[in-house]
Amino acid sequence: MKTIGVVGGVASGKSLVSQMLVELGAAVLDADRTGHDVLAYDPDVRDAIRRRWNEAVFTPQGDIDRRAVAKKVFAQDKSAAADRKFLEGLLHPRIGARLETLRDDFAAKDKPAAVLDAPLLLEASWESLCDFIIFVDVPSQNRMARAKKRGWSAAEFADREAAQWPVDKKRHHATHVLPNFGTEAELRTAVRNFWAENIGKIPKG
């Protein structure tokens, strides 16, 4: 089984590429969902977050408020960088271990490939889990327009972008570059070509 990492700038269409790979037969290693599970169910993580921010990032029901945490770590102030480093150091090793276990489970089930859908794949050093890394190439102005359609402000887009590696650095680490500034049909063709060349036969249907 081959593992495919998908990287790119904010709002580049990484999830769309991942979904197209799934349609071809890939299993999904969802880092966001795995991170949600770690936040929700790992008692050591909850205790560490409570010590860091007290009750400010918990809901009245006692759950971690992910929006409140995001405001802490993506804000443009002096404490945000330290907060982000704390959170990444807390979560990334735990998420990575779970993703590795899931990958091994999929391999045991004879899946042809798994796609690692992780916004911070390279920043978290999860590229070691991957056989291929696809960079989804989209100009900044296109990504900004897409982010606005999602309801993000220009400041929110900039904050998220600043919290990740520069897109040129991501491109440098990629094994394949797929353009996503044309039509969805063109992107689908590029994904299918990648699959045929590196994974196996295109499934019928």
Give your account of this protein's structure.
With 205 residues, the chain is α/β, with parallel strands linked by helices. It has nine helices and five strands. It has helices at residues 14-23, 31-41, 43-53, 66-74, 78-108, 140-149, 154-162, 167-173, 184-198; strands spanning 2-8, 27-30, 113-117, 132-137, 176-179. It has a five-stranded parallel beta sheet with strand order 2-3-1-4-5, sandwiched between helices. Helix 2 packs across helix 5. The longest helix is centred in the middle third of the chain and has 31 residues, at 78-108. It is globular, with a radius of gyration of 18 Å.
Total DSSP E strands: 5
* Largest β-sheet summary: 5 strands, parallel
How far the N terminus sits from the C terminus, by CA atoms, comes to 22 Å
Task: Detail the poorly predicted runs.
Answer: none
- Compressed to H and E, one letter per element, the order equals EHEHHHHEEHHHEH
How much of the residues is beta strand, in percent? 5-15%
**Silhouette:** globular
* Percent of residues in helices: 55-70%
